[in-house]
Amino acid sequence: MAVREVKFGILGCAGIARKLTRAIALSPNSTVIAVGSRSEEKAAKFARENGLPESVKLYGSYDGVLEDPEVDAVYVPLPTSLHWKWVRIAAGKKKHVLLEKPVALNAQEFDEILEACESNGVQIMDGTMWMHHPRTAQMKDFLLDTARFGQLKSVHSVFTFPLPKQLLETDIRTKPDLDALGALGDQGWYCIGSILWAADYSLPKSVLAIRDAALLNPAGVIMACSASLHWENGNTATFHCSFFASLAMDLSVVGTAGSLHLHDFIIPFEESKASYSTSANAGFKDLGTGWDPCPSEHVVFTELPQEVVMVSEFARLVGNVKSGGCGPEKKWAVLSRKTQLVIDAVKSSVEKGYEAVEVVE
């Protein structure tokens, strides 16, 4: 059976849209047929700079893309403050939605987005690329191995990179009317998502933002943040995100029998391969002169970059819906919502003067 090609429209020409446009082009079951921006000139410039064919339709509005009957799905890289409006409009036009993270400003907004998608029978997935890398599935197999990893006890996640000084005042991630979640929404989304992934998406009972680690700009947007997460069974996790620290993407997961570590969990050091290390049932050598056994390094090769795998999976789900074989896959929406709930709780902890805040599903 021939693979059905899903026809994408791009809503907005943000920087991240360049990466996803390439991913759609490399995906075996997807193609870009339309680009919409705030002006047709901007849409044309984006198409030209990203090597899109002349057949791609250019629109000077997002509505133009959504009204196009040939568009099956839209990729939405718009500022978070615009997600609630445009995803609901897209769903109403029966367009499936690949949505950049954070998915919304809060869980209530996201619930309304999900209601629109569900009532119109459209697929929604967020753009967390690392979840689709084959390395991620292999690492999960290790975490589920009770003989080598045991039971989860703690997780630590870090995602930081320095915003250039000139962008600290102009970037949309620093503006309360555009991306009010700041570093917490941009970087913290990945940290919290990785923690929940390691915990099989069991939500923590409470979170506590760390006062001395938080940095807010004059507009009140979080520029750096750390928090601890606490479960009823005694498990704990911590994360740190910052627009002021060097590039780091660390994830450490510790169990009763083993541990897992990697330093590039969001964007692998190389596109075609990714590595991680594990330690299982390790102890010290005599006199504490080393480890026995030493940690093992694992390398996972992939023919397609993780963002292409993500697009291909999304397009597969869209194809299933359009063929009438099944309804939208709800798994991805559930995972997005749980991540958003923890984001909300951390933000609330900051706003309440760094008090512990319960995570309410």
From TrEMBL:
Any one GO molecular function term:
nucleotide binding
What organism is listed for this UniProt entry? Genlisea aurea
**What domain of life does the UniProt record list for this protein's source?**
Eukaryota
| Coiled coil region boundaries | none
The chain positions of domain Gfo/Idh/MocA-like oxidoreductase N-terminal read 7-125
Q: Residue limits of the GFO/IDH/MocA-like oxidoreductase domain?
A: 143-260
Q: Which family does it belong to?
A: Belongs to the Gfo/Idh/MocA family.
Q: How is this protein named in the record?
A: Uncharacterized protein
Q: Which InterPro entries match?
A: Gfo/Idh/MocA-like_OxRdtase_N, GFO_IDH_MocA-like_dom, NAD(P)-bd_dom_sf
| Pfam family, any one | GFO_IDH_MocA
